[in-house]
TrEMBL record:
Its EC number is 5.1.3.2. This is UDP-glucose 4-epimerase. The keyword Isomerase applies. Residues 4-237 form the NAD-dependent epimerase/dehydratase domain. Keywords: Isomerase. Belongs to the NAD(P)-dependent epimerase/dehydratase family. It comes from the Bacteria. It is an enzyme of class 5 (isomerase). PANTHER family: DTDP-D-GLUCOSE 4,6-DEHYDRATASE-RELATED. GO terms for molecular function: UDP-glucose 4-epimerase activity. Pfam families: Epimerase.
Length: 322
């Protein structure tokens, strides 16, 4: 059994990771300032500390808990917000990470980091692996890339191990609309509330942009494999399967219908609009390194994952029985 701190534990991915580790019998300290996270996501079998990762009080609490591992998921996660508020983005994502690295340095605790393949590689022609040159085109991408560099430098200087996981577009239960796979919850909310949805497209392609959707439970398992790894490394956590936005929309419509939710003809046909500034045409990540070294592969396919996500949304609204 390990002692683990998970930051961002009231958020979408962090809470799913905590649930996975509590189930496995680990002792977990959940840390979150609840700035966007939901208190109901905190696993009641974990200890909970409400605090800002940038504050010394939070560091003090972590040092007292003395974990073997710090799994750092807390972040400002919105790309558009990072463009309008680069200072706040850098404060949370870079300085907050450095605070957590100071704790790891003092404790010699292993450091697991939630990075972003989608944003860090930027626009790609085919598929990006971990050796693809990063091309950070937003403050969010740059703050994650800078954090990765701090992790490597401080690990070398202070002798703690690290694993950087570059997630693709993560979707699943507890997902929030402003994340990198935000379309899933945006479409779901629209369809359930009988509102029309919009797919943003580039002129040459009327089915939306290409993304690599990975289910959140698989991301939790990847963190678990990273916990067990006895060396440092950087890994893409993704499926490598290209999916266009329209396919996501259709899968959600089909799943809702299977749960007996009425989807009228007019809302089951989306509107189309031009791509927004900064939208990437294609984001696709090769996870062969994770397969080989972490012994990790995605286990949930897109259709199953969307089904599970729709079920969770409906259960939360009392529209389907558990
Ligand atoms: N969702 C995706 O598709 C995706 C893709 C790539 C990478 N990531 C990364 O994965 C991590 C988790 O993302 P998520 O989708 O679960 O986001 P989320 O917004 O659901 O969770 C982030 C959590 O961090 C907390 N937080 C924010 N600032 C904080 C601070 N200063 N101090 C303490 N807590 C703070 C929030 O309250 C929230 O609970 C992030 O680091 C994100 O950049 C997510």
């Amino acid at each position: 059994m390990a002692k683990i701190v998970v930051t961002g534990a009231a958020g979408f991915i962090g809470s799913n990771i905590v649930d996975y580790w509590i189930e496995k019998g680990h002792e977990v300290l959940s840390v979150d300032d609840l700035s966007s996270g939901n208190i109901n996501n905190i696993n009641s079998k974990s200890l909970f500390f409400q605090g800002d990762i940038c504050s010394k009080k939070t560091s003090k609490k972590i040092l007292e808990f003395s974990p073997d591992v710090i799994c750092h998921q807390a972040a400002q996660i919105s790309v558009p917000y990072s463009v309008t508020h680069p200072y706040i983005d850098a404060k949370i994502n870079i300085l907050g990470t450095i605070r957590m690295l100071e704790c790891a340095s003092k404790l010699k605790a292993k450091f697991l980091f939630a990075s972003t393949g989608g944003a860090i590689y930027g626009e790609i022609k085919d598929i990006a692996n971990e050796d693809t040159e990063p091309s950070a085109t937003s403050p969010y991408a740059l703050s994650k890339l800078t954090s990765e560099n701090y992790i490597k430098l401080m690990s070398q200087k202070f002798g703690f191990k690290y694993v950087i996981l570059r997630y693709s577009n993560v979707y699943g239960p507890r997902q929030v609309p402003h994340g990198e796979a935000g379309v899933v919850s945006i479409f779901l909310e629209n369809l359930i509330n009988k509102r029309k949805s919009t797919i943003n497209t580039f002129p040459e392609d009327n089915e939306g942009m290409v993304r690599d959707y990975v289910f959140v439970k698989d991301v939790a398992i990847a963190n678990d494999r990273a916990l067990e790894l006895d060396k440092c490394g950087t890994f893409n956590i993704s499926t490598g399967i290209p999916t266009k936005t329209k396919r996501i929309f259709s899968l959600i419509v089909d799943a809702l219908k299977r749960y007996g939710i009425e989807v009228s003809e007019s809302i089951s046909v989306p509107n189309y609009a031009d791509a927004r500034p900064g939208d990437l045409r294609r984001s696709l990540l090769d996870s062969n390194r994770a397969k080989e070294i972490l012994k990790w592969e995605p286990t949930v396919n897109l259709k199953e994952g969307i089904e599970l996500t729709v079920k969770w949304f409906l259960e939360r609204r009392g529209q389907v029985r558990t």
